[in-house]
Amino acid sequence: MAKTAKATAGKNAKRTGEGLKVRRVFTTDGVHPYDQVEWEKRDVVMTNWRDGSVNFQQDGVEFPSFWSQNAAQIVTSKYFRGAVGTPQRESSLKQLISRVVDTYHEAGRKNGYFASDEDAEIFSEELTWLLLHQYFSFNSPVWFNVGTAAPQQVSACFILSVDDSMESILDWYKEEGLIFKGGSGAGVNLSKIRGSNELLSSGGNASGPVSFMRGADASAGTIKSGGATRRAAKMVVLDVDHPDVEEFIETKSREEDKIRALRDAGFDVDLGGDDIVSVQYQNANNSVRVSDEFMRAVDEGTDYALRNRMDGSEAGRRDARSVFKKMAKAAWECADPGIQYDDVINSWHTNPNTDRINASNPCSEYMSLDNSSCNLASLNLMKFLADDGSFDVDRFAAAVETVITAMEVSISFADFPTEKIGDTTRKYRQLGIGYSNLGALLMASGLAYDSEEGRSLSAAITALMTGVSYRRSAEIAGAVGPYEGYAVNAEPHARVMAKHAKAVEDVRTFGDIDATILGAARDEWGKGNKLGAVNGWRNAQASVLAPTGTISFMMDADTTGIEPDLALVKHKKLVGGGSMEIVNQTIPRALDRLGYGEREAGEIVDFIAENGHVVGAPHLSEDHYTVFDCAMGQRSISPMGHVHMMAAVQPFLSGAISKTVNVPESATIDDIGEIYLQGWKLGLKALAVYRDNCKVGQPLSAKKNESEEAETASSETVSEAGAPVRKKLPQRRSSQVTSFNVAGAEGYMTASTYPDTGKIGEVFLKMSKQGSTLAGVMDAFSIAISVALQYGVPLEEYVRKFTNMRFEPAGMTDDSDVRMASSLVDYIFRRLALDYLPYDERAALGILTTAERTAELNGEDPATVSEQADSDAEKAEAPVSPAAKPASSNGSNLLYSSAAREADAPLCMNCGTRMRPSGSCYACDGCGATSGCS
């Protein structure tokens, strides 16, 4: 990335005031924030998931005692600068925070932002305190670059432009590469490129925008952002009236068919896999930009015109519903394309006199002028929730003031990948303040995510955040002048500010807490708009809601961005390695808020820890179940619940919202179309939909009915008194011997069954290295499992507990149905599930044979494949358990269970941990890597 000339605040606008006065809120005069916390030394070790080798290690790093091991590991491996093992390597959080804050402090003082050096010093200490105590975080490029010898790129989000010329298209390739290299993501609208039906000046037809996407996609696939820390993130947009829009819509769904074929042939097509590079268009999110005219045509069932790019002439007409259904069908098949509502976006645009908004960043939250950028920062909402359930409005407003000031200051020293982007960003100074941990905040407040009360609180907080941001922006404009492009956009900017303020009046409140926050928001918008009428504003945009994957982990947040909780039980990383499953810490707080006593709450938490859900939990009222609904699991939030939450907060954001609306596998193409239609009617700016099981490598699952679950606990193992009774196998029993090899560790498994039921009752495991510790442990493990099976512990419970357990040896196996195993026990119980569990139970756990997966991809019923396999085995007189037969292949209600949904996400390309959804992207709990921008 080439360094561009830095522009001072004074150069962009005439200084009109005496600088900002800064008040102390979080710090104590005369005491540095570092001296108020307890520090400790830790070792950070990260291993390669394939072979167990150490791929990162730094011992003796220093962090506050209240920071989790996970947060310390992410910061150490991703954000500490300098070569490991050299004196230049950072080894303390103090060094990292000071490197960044000192740069902001000096730039703010130098460029006249503060009334005095004392105010600048207070700003520095307040900023340090907020970062140290995990109240907020800057986006990743700040931690990568600020205060280093590298170009100081602070923006995570970029929007580029492409014209209809080869020179412009090649510039696009280059500019994207520079942005990815700096740790950020970029989006672009390709609608200016002539369609494949139009002629070239030299004769012949043009290639069309889809063909040029191939080159950009290949380039993005070879570049890891920020050195080797993140994958390239990009967005490609095409207008719905472009002649090639239907080809664009189906681009990724066609490629998904190729991925399936490669996967079934044994190629590695997982995220970061060796063979995924042979498939095109996999490095970008695609979105169609639709107009109100088009959406009205969809709603009314009429047609609309395609437009040639060269002269705007009509290129034919299309039935709007037909094109719209193609969008929904492609999204149903592979989650792309998303949808962007052009007229809504531009109706909230503060700078229309400069140009319209054509595109977005990769995750669709930043929407502004072409060739512009936005730096992000996100607040940890849980930090402002008091023990009595109230929200600390004053401290929240003070934190927003400090963060917005810092974000604005960064533009005065930031470097940009191109002069065009630098020029636009300095002239319009777009910021993207947002928040994380909303889902946890609502649960801790005893509010359901999908409820009017939850949406009211969310809207009030968002309105307050953006209101304070623009009020502060007007104050900064009074000190150093408004943004350079403000003069020609004064009227539309003020009009949009009035729209935000009007939207506050439309929010309905349900209690003292949301009413108090909304009242404060109303005051902030009133003060800010009065001040802006005098001073103007320093920033064309102020707020967005980003996915916040990595930085949420850095802040030890339970949830990311605007998302609800993913699940009620999560993995906690332990100091010294390993992890354990724990109930989310938000749950006890929620139970207290709902009025449950300590003993009752303890029993509810124990139930959740054992079952992963609240259904049937002792003492818990069914009226409170909705409070604990999550993005996945037995009780998951409805798709429209996500859409309505987005609609509640959208009027209070300068930009948009990075969020994916999850729908069950059973959702139809029409269901997805209806979500896209309602998103437009509810005033959203953008929307993406993800249907469970629509991507390669995702297992099917089946819903078990209550009678089947009851059958699992065999009554033969329970006495009349209710005590468990051991049912031993007879001396002569049917057995099946399986040889296996997991990452070079060879062994044999002997599984024996009851002659009357065919259910498994005994497992013996022998490792090839006799006398080794591993062999001895496996012997003991075999005995423990066998005894428990004979006492009636269902095999399904063992499969659920032991699959996905990770330890060495782990890796490739010689089993065609279980090609990869994360440990020996992971392999063993996957193999036992395939051999001895009914099809529907295996499917619920995401365990299918290769033949069953192939059948599903071919549009066949996998259950019939299972039936045929059992039939063939019986004909061959093989010892196949009757329990392995599917109960029924007709009318199976295929849904997506929690276990299957976790398996749905890709493996992290850095550490191999299963990633989880984060907005429109994926984030890794293990190392903090993301597939998007945060």
UniProtKB/TrEMBL annotation:
<dbReference type="InterPro" id="IPR024434">
    <property type="entry name" value="TSCPD_dom"/>
</dbReference>
<keyword id="KW-0547">Nucleotide-binding</keyword>
<protein>
    <recommendedName>
        <fullName>Vitamin B12-dependent ribonucleotide reductase</fullName>
        <ecNumber>1.17.4.1</ecNumber>
    </recommendedName>
</protein>
<keyword id="KW-0237">DNA synthesis</keyword>
<dbReference type="InterPro" id="IPR050862">
    <property type="entry name" value="RdRp_reductase_class-2"/>
</dbReference>
<keyword id="KW-0560">Oxidoreductase</keyword>
<feature type="compositionally biased region" description="Low complexity">
    <location>
        <begin position="712"/>
        <end position="723"/>
    </location>
</feature>
<keyword id="KW-0846">Cobalamin</keyword>
<feature type="compositionally biased region" description="Low complexity">
    <location>
        <begin position="878"/>
        <end position="889"/>
    </location>
</feature>
<keyword id="KW-1015">Disulfide bond</keyword>
<feature type="domain" description="Ribonucleotide reductase class II vitamin B12-dependent N-terminal">
    <location>
        <begin position="44"/>
        <end position="134"/>
    </location>
</feature>
<feature type="domain" description="TSCPD">
    <location>
        <begin position="730"/>
        <end position="835"/>
    </location>
</feature>
<comment type="function">
    <text>Catalyzes the reduction of ribonucleotides to deoxyribonucleotides. May function to provide a pool of deoxyribonucleotide precursors for DNA repair during oxygen limitation and/or for immediate growth after restoration of oxygen.</text>
</comment>
<feature type="region of interest" description="Disordered">
    <location>
        <begin position="700"/>
        <end position="732"/>
    </location>
</feature>
<feature type="region of interest" description="Disordered">
    <location>
        <begin position="858"/>
        <end position="891"/>
    </location>
</feature>
<feature type="domain" description="Ribonucleotide reductase large subunit C-terminal">
    <location>
        <begin position="155"/>
        <end position="690"/>
    </location>
</feature>
<dbReference type="Pfam" id="PF12637">
    <property type="entry name" value="TSCPD"/>
</dbReference>
<comment type="similarity">
    <text>Belongs to the ribonucleoside diphosphate reductase class-2 family.</text>
</comment>
<keyword id="KW-0170">Cobalt</keyword>
<dbReference type="Pfam" id="PF02867">
    <property type="entry name" value="Ribonuc_red_lgC"/>
</dbReference>
<dbReference type="InterPro" id="IPR000788">
    <property type="entry name" value="RNR_lg_C"/>
</dbReference>
<dbReference type="Pfam" id="PF08471">
    <property type="entry name" value="Ribonuc_red_2_N"/>
</dbReference>
<dbReference type="InterPro" id="IPR013678">
    <property type="entry name" value="RNR_2_N"/>
</dbReference>
<dbReference type="GO" id="GO:0004748">
    <property type="term" value="F:ribonucleoside-diphosphate reductase activity, thioredoxin disulfide as acceptor"/>
</dbReference>
<dbReference type="InterPro" id="IPR013344">
    <property type="entry name" value="RNR_NrdJ/NrdZ"/>
</dbReference>
